[in-house]
Here is the input.
Amino acid sequence: MEFQHKPVLFRETIEALRVRPGGDYIDGTVGGGGHSQAILRGLEGRGRLLAIDQDPDAIEAASRRLSGFPNVEFARGNFGNMAELAEERGISGADGILLDIGVSSHQLDDPGRGFSYHYDAPLDMRMSQEGPTAADLVNSLSQGELAGIILRYGEDRSAGRIAAGICKAREEAPIRTTVQLAEIIKASVPAAVRRGEGHPARKTFQALRIAVNGELDRLEEGLEGAFSLLKPQGRLAVITFHSLEDRLVKRRMAQWCQGCTCPKDFPVCVCGKKPQGRLVYKKGVAPSPEETAENPRARSARLRVFERARRE
Here is the structure.
């Protein structure tokens, strides 16, 4: 299946990065290469772009799409290891870094990847196509562990019922496919939830995907790696797709922007702490109504941009 991914908040993101010819940039989630292509055009044949993705399908597709640009280098790996991947390639700093977090359209729409309950497919969900699958988790974790994952990463109030339903079902036969799991979830939740908006399996599938790929831990690591690489006045643009990611990014960027932490009644500052940068937008940028009408998957996206201080 051809790798397809429609970049969300495309114009806003590229404008926020302020790509300048001759600069050094990193796309930590290259996907189909849409954002990277725009960055490379802005470089005008100079500078350098490091394009990272853990999905081999994405690296292959982006390599084809960007084959006409001599100043792009690809690295297969997780953006959580961005600092190490950059160091291995002699990159010590970046003028701009992009992280487009979450699952791509290709991964959702390819039945064989097992991300969606809309297709009957092996219960996989691995972005890297390596390591334990979602099927491994639902068939091996305890009821309490499953409930914890669904509650924490899916924020689903029916987590206990769903975990109990999964454990009961797997006593009869292993849970191997997406539709099999979706039907178990649907049968486990209260009738009011089944009648509600959206499929009752949506939050559990999100939770399992996050757990399988360690997404929030990788995001924490990726943010720290990106911050360590940003040059003075360099910008980090992060696109998130659900509240867990967005809160994490918002909190970390706020910490970087925080100045003096002395008690308010201190006459002078004794901590010496200064802001390490600023927020380019005070609030996260949401897609326009036109974009969400054209691409419904964009509706939950938020763009947050941090600019490192001129000097610290």
Q: What stands out?
A: The beta strands are 24-27, 48-53, 72-76, 94-100, 230-240, 277-279, 302-308. The mean pLDDT is 92. Residues 10-106+215-308 form a domain with the Rossmann fold fold (CATH 3.40.50.150).
